[in-house]
Amino acid sequence: MLILTIETSCDETSVAIGEIKNGKLKVLSHVTSSQIKLHAKWGGVVPDLASREHLKNLVPVLDLARKEAGFKNPEELAKKVDLIGVTQGPGLIPALLLGVNFAKSLSYIWKKPLIPINHMEGHIYASFVESSPRKLSLKENPFPLLALLVSGGHTMLVFSKKHLQYKILGETLDDAVGEAFDKVARILGLPYPGGPMLSKMAEQGSSDFQFSIPMKNSPTLNFSFSGLKTAVLYKALELSKNQKIAEILDKSPKPDLKIPLTKKQKQNLSKAFEDVAVQSLILRVRQALKIRNFKTFVLGGGVSANKLLRKRISEELAQEFPKTNFLLPPLDLTGDNAAMLIPVTYFKWQKARKEGKTGKYLDNWKNLEAEAGLEL
After folding, report:
1. Does residue 359 sit in the same domain as residue 285?
2. In terms of DSSP bridges, do strands 83-89 and 2-7 run parallel, antiparallel, or are they unpaired?
3. What's the CA gap between 52 and 256, in Å, rounded?
4. pLDDT score of 253 more than 60
5. Residue 170 in 3-state DSSP?
6. Of 171, 163, 117, 128, which Cα lies nearest the Cα of 144?
7. Is there a contact between 131 and 157 (Cβ–Cβ < 8 Å)?
8. Is residue 97 situated within a structural domain?
9. CB neighbour list of residue 333: distance below 8 Å, 6 or more residues apart
10. Within this chain, do residues 7 and 116 fall inside the same structural domain, yes or no?
């Protein structure tokens, strides 16, 4: 079975082609065009600019993916493809519309089934494409499964007892952890993309102070990062001894902080923040793992590229829970990408076949709509 997938939920235009034989997935090609340089001067993603770039990039990216997969021309690819999968949401609606409408056009012209994918379930299945320490077979039974999804828009713990069935055990009550990384980076005056830059600064930090772990004693599995972000702001002002919080709050809606900090102070603040943010994630994962005997744990989302988080999961938690198989996606599958959609597309089609409902995907080019707030 040959599957083509398309991802445009934010600022990455991504297309992947995968082949599934005997329960094993082989990615034939995976091409992603990033827009980081375009949005850097704005300090964040501008939705309308992102959609324009998707419009320019979708055909070239698809054509490059087709060539890398070994197909001589578009006609050959159209003939061989069995399924098309596309991110329906959540994400930026201008960006999602481009990918969904592009996929609908291909589905109509090629006469192929079109399967909508939730962006977050894609992150759950990223480790089914390729993971550390090993690749999963699509025929394996990894359940019960616990997933920690960490990105700029989401932070949640998800329980799954079978394919395509999800229960959210806990989620953030305010900022997502990736959003907190970016906001703290802005407080420190670090360039876009803030989160990765903060982690690089943290590697050189050696703070002699600590922030409190948010909701440390909460019996729930929910997260909170807004208070931690504010604590960093107060500490930065204290170290700079240049501004008072009242002066900051009087400026709106997004004041240019310009807190005068030395490079060492920025490194130390980055380290102190990252340490506690990761501790907070590890604390909740540990609580969840104690609820039941999970066979598999997977990590997913943009923040899953964080070195400290990956280290603590693969070393600390893996040793503490030896009966659980801990899987981390490779770095190139931590961000938004189309390859992670391939397993989900496959499982959704298999489920529809079993239930005799494949017809709903055959005419999906007529009905499918992008959903910015799509829930898992």
Report:
1. no
2. parallel
3. 28
4. no
5. strand
6. 163
7. no
8. yes
9. 126, 129, 130, 339, 340
10. yes
Do residues 121 and 248 share a domain? no
Domain extent for 124: 2-130+333-367
Residue 365 identity (one-letter amino acid): W
Check whether residue 343 and residue 323 sit in a common domain: no
Does residue 204 sit in the same domain as residue 305?
Answer: yes
Q: Please check whether residue 375 lies inside any domain of the structure.
A: no
Considering all CA atoms of the chain, what is the largest pairwise distance in Å, rounded to the nearest integer? 68
**Is the pLDDT score of 255 beyond 60?**
no
- Over residues 84-104, the pLDDT tens digits come to 999 999 999 999 999 999 999
Copy the structure tokens of residue 312: 């603590």
- Whether 171 and 155 have beta carbons less than 8 Å apart is answered as yes
Contact 7, 54 (CB under 8 A): no
Q: Is 37 exposed, middle or buried (0-12, 13-18, 19+ CB in 10 A)?
A: exposed
Q: How far apart are CA 63 and CA 59, in angstroms?
A: 6
Tell me: do 98 and 203 sit in the same domain.
Answer: no
Kindly state whether residue 135 falls inside one of the protein's structural domains: no
Picking from 191, 9, 176, the residue whose alpha carbon sits closest to that of residue 87 is 9
Q: Assess if residue 46 is contained within a domain.
A: yes
Specify the DSSP element, H or E, that contains 184: helix 177-187
User: Which residue do the tokens 């992008």 mark?
Assistant: 370
320 and 338 share one domain? no
Give the containing element (helix H, strand E) for 317: none
Q: What is the pLDDT of residues 42-54, one digit of tens each?
A: 777 888 888 999 9
Specify whether 208 is located in the same domain as 300: yes
Q: Is the pTM of this model over 0.70?
A: yes
